[in-house]
Amino acid sequence: MLKNLKASSLILPLLMLILTPLGVFADEGLTPGQIAGDNAWMLTSTCLVLLMTIPGVALFYGGLSRKQNVLSTLMHVFAGTCVVTITWCVIGYSIAYSEGATPYYGGLANFMFAGFEYDPKSSGLPIGVDVVFQATFAIITTALIAGSFAERIKFSSTLVFMAIWSVVVYAPICYWVWGGGILSEKGILDFAGGTVVHINCGIAGLVAAIVVGKRTVASYKYAPHNLIYTIVGASLLWVGWFGFNAGSAYGANEGAGMAMLVTQIATAASALSWMVIEWITKGKPSVIGLTGGAVAGLVAITPASGFVYPMGALVIGLVAGAACWFFSTVVKKALGYDDSYDVFGIHGVGGIVGALLTGLFCVPILADVEPGMEQLGIQFYGILMTIGWCGFATFIILKAIDMTIGLRVSSKVEKEGLDVNLHGEIVD
């Protein structure tokens, strides 16, 4: 049996030796099994990232809402997924990944699916997988913003905002970082979306919370209706995030394995960091605190996941948990803005912490740059650029919507609940 095994193990190498000169198996030295494995991992990663939004974000936010607004919250996420899928495929992907005339805005070479050629003989990543994988990033970025103005905004206004924002804000910043734009030229490190996704949605969430305004006092102080939904949603986010980070390696390879490891470490460290601080300051650890800390760690490790080793991930997680706790509790209370589900405190602050610490803990063999003050400066420049454009554009979009169709529901609708008034449905 051993002899047969050894003999069979020689068949594939011999075939490759014979057929490679003829053009078979010649694609970057990969075997058909490796190519198939990479594509299978990317298909899986795409599904995992979509899982993060529906049902992950939907349940996470839905559990934090009042009972009379839970369907409204779920609708924002689910309908937003539909809207951004269309805007991304029609124009967003082209803006983000087509060569533009300037380093600030991509081109329209792939507008309305132009240039999307299907090649059944291609041995690389299928164009369809790439478009959908990147679509899931645009989807979750936009969906996360909904947590900042939940329980008081019109459903129609939300959909209009998501459609415009995904094209005007998300796609250009994606081009800056991943499409060869200005931040890519500067050498910013953002492996899986700390800047593109989390700082972006966090700043948009802060602006949206301020422009839309606070909830009424009654709803503002109302306790979350179902924290079981929240912890299940957070769990789905944790699992799905492996597609987010390890999938950004674009293959079933060593980089994906390291990204998975550091993601797990940073998430656990951040969750424990937040929980311990809350335990010390309030006397009791809470489900909201533990899950918020876990998401903060997931956010912070996102830009660094392909560039750091485990010890760097541990530090990033510990710092992120403490920083996001501070901004989600102390700073928010001091400044008085109503960011319903701490989009800025968790995603904005977590993304900033992760982006900066990536510059300090990146490993040269992984990042192809040296860690230190120079890279830290590049990371800081990218943060400022993202904050500037996202904050300005988000404000203009929201103000334009407010002056046309309006942003907020009436005080009567807000008091009674958005579910029955906007959707004609209730949760018993």
How would you describe the overall organization of this protein?
The chain is mostly helical and 428 residues long. It has a single domain (38-423), classed as Ammonium transporter AmtB like domains (Ammonium transporter fold), CATH 1.10.3430.10. Helix content is 71%, strand content 0%. The chain has 18 helices and no strands. Helix 12 (287-301) packs across helix 14. The longest helix is centred in the N-terminal third of the chain and has 33 residues, at 32-64. The radius of gyration is 22 Å and the shape is globular. The model is unreliable at 1-27 (pLDDT under 50).
Write the layout of secondary structure elements.
Layout: H1 2-9, H2 11-19, H3 32-64, H4 70-97, H5 127-145, H6 155-178, H7 182-186, H8 194-212, H9 217-220, H10 227-245, H11 254-282, H12 287-301, H13 310-335, H14 343-361, H15 364-367, H16 373-404, H17 411-416, H18 418-423
Number of strands: 0
Specify the biggest β-sheet. none
Helix content range of the residues, please?
A: over 70%
Global shape: globular
Number of domains: 1
Q: Rg from C-alpha positions? A: 22 Å
Fourth CATH level, the homologous superfamily: Ammonium transporter AmtB like domains
The level-1 CATH class: Mainly Alpha
Descriptive labels:
Ammonium transporter fold, mainly alpha, 0% strand, single chain, 71% helix
